[in-house]
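Posting this for the archive.
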Amino acid sequence: MTEISLKLRKTPVTKLFISYLIPSVLGMLLMSINILVDGIFVSHGVGEDALAGVNIAVPIFSIFLSISLWIGMGGATLYSISLGRNEIKKAQSIFTQSFVLAILIVGVLAILSLWKETELAYFFGANDRILPYVLDYLHIILLFGIVFVFENVLSIFIRNDGNPRLAMVGLIITAILNIVFNYVFIFVMDLGISGAAYATVLATFVGFLVMITHFWRKSSTLKFVRLKFEYAIIKQVMNIGFPSFIVESSAAILTMGYNITFMQYTGELGVKAFAVVNYIHVMFLLLFLGVGAALQPIASFHYGAKLYERLRSSLKLAVGTGILFGVITLIVGIIFADFLVSLFGIESQEVRDFTVKGMGLFFISYLFLAYNLVYAEYFQAIRNIRLSITIILARSIILLIPLIWLLPMFFGVNGIWLAFPVAEGITTICLVLWNRSRSPVPQIA
């Protein structure tokens, strides 16, 4: 039995969860601050139209990340389950196949997207005024997007190999360098919106190089082996990881849906306001994804090892932590809305007022979002894929898309902001009722 397996079996559950939670949340917090600073630099250094342009181009970034999460989380879950069963060689083969598969899929997608770049920008919601900014940012992300896959997939597997601290360090370095590079490229070298894209790519690459040092650890089980694609493994990886793909890609759907609806009802005023809210939303959203990321390796291992009581305790800790974060985030969003918006240097008082009001409505979603995401991640970790997908689809597509279209008819512009909280709230109610009707944790046979 490996050193990692012994640690996961013997460490008290609360201590074990905290040892994964702190690095995961801190790493995500720094990444979220990094995203916020990115928006602030673009807004101050290039202008409000540029900020709107980045927000419209962001879905391609979300799509790349969603694919890396799809393969990364699917492979890492299977990896941890195999470790729980003490199947070391199988775990290493799963890692190798997953890493190469993610690169191949994103590589093909990037080439196809570069071919239809302008059409893609319009599809994401660009208009003629914002299009040049969208294309400047989009082109660089498409050319070098594979770097995000390198870092993200490796980070996920490193956490599952018992080294969440290194994953955190990689994210910290990425965040710090992105801030430095943004300042240099935008304000010193005057590269405009292209500078923001180059800063993100270069910082991510350095973070990836830091994470490679994990392979030098003596206790590391993670390593590349001879590549041999196995249909059964690939099918399981893609099946298990599909909920993660939906979570991240739904962020792109949310962004596109809101941009298109705001453009229809308010024009560029709404798009600029949502760009700010969305930057802040992504910042806080990463905290909840950090809670799920901390739970996943623990849940997958204990599920594979059939340690169901420890699994139940881990789930309770994660749900309680997520709900606490949700309440704190809502309070911060309401009390400090004006301050957060002011960070972006929005000069128009009309845009600022509209953004502050919208943020107060949009942030109601955090009362429910944590509960939904933690359970979706948990069910994915124990291979209850159908239920995980149901939760994610309900909150992000099945309910959200119709609500973005319907609520403005009855509540005007406020209805657009409220679509996301209402979708999350309905999903939570249904999930609570489901959990009361049956146990979410497997029973000991």
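The mean pLDDT is 85. The chain has one domain: 3-437.
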